[in-house]
Amino acid sequence: MPKIIKLEANYPCYNALHKMGAEAGDDIVMVNPGEVVELMRRVPPGQLTTVIDICRAIAARHGVKGCCTLTAGIFIMTAANAVEEAKQTNGNFELPYWRTLKANGFLNEKYPGGVEAHKQLLEQEGFTVVNQGKRFYVARYQDFLAGNRELDTV
């Protein structure tokens, strides 16, 4: 990995990639966990990122139209859980995973402790979390997105 492939309309992440501007037949990258973790680690206190922003940065790094958001999302969730597991076994693996949101600023229910724990970590850093039905999101999350400098991997 990473592996560059041609996007096909039947791929599970096709709709997300299409929203990012990729069409069937375009080159996309299947990300690897190391790239995802590297970008998550770069988000400084007081700033946020989303799975979409991470995918855009990785796609730019590889000169392709997009990256598989499904794979990136799985790696984000896995990294978050690995951090919490490492803490419980006296490991020291620092990764501010809570600063990585789902698309549109929504909290990740698959993070350790679910949405409530994600909400608490974000509020400890001064972010305002708002309830929208059964989902939660960071208010004005766009104002806090890490810029290209933080996520620039080229």
List keywords for this structure.
two-stranded parallel ribbon, single chain, globular, alpha/beta, Arc Repressor Mutant, subunit A
Can you list the strand order of the major beta sheet?
1-2-4
CATH class: Mainly Alpha
CATH topology category name: Arc Repressor Mutant, subunit A
CATH superfamily: Winged helix-like DNA-binding domain superfamily/Winged helix DNA-binding domain
Tally of separate domains: 1
What does the model show?
- This protein starts with a strand and ends with a helix.
- It has 154 residues and is an alpha/beta fold.
- The strands form three sheets. The chain has a three-stranded mixed β-sheet. A two-stranded parallel sheet has the order 3-5.
- The protein has six helices and seven strands.
- Helices cover 40% and strands 14% of the residues.
- Strand 6 and strand 7 form a beta hairpin.
- The protein has one domain: Winged helix-like DNA-binding domain superfamily/Winged helix DNA-binding domain (Arc Repressor Mutant, subunit A).
Question: What is the topological layout?
Answer:
Blueprint: E1 3-6, H1 14-19, E2 27-30, H2 33-41, E3 49-50, H3 51-62, E4 66-67, H4 69-88, E5 100-101, H5 114-124, E6 129-132, E7 135-138, H6 148-151
Parallel strand pairs: 2-4, 3-5
Antiparallel strand pairs: 1-2, 6-7
Helix pairs in contact: 2-3, 2-4, 3-4
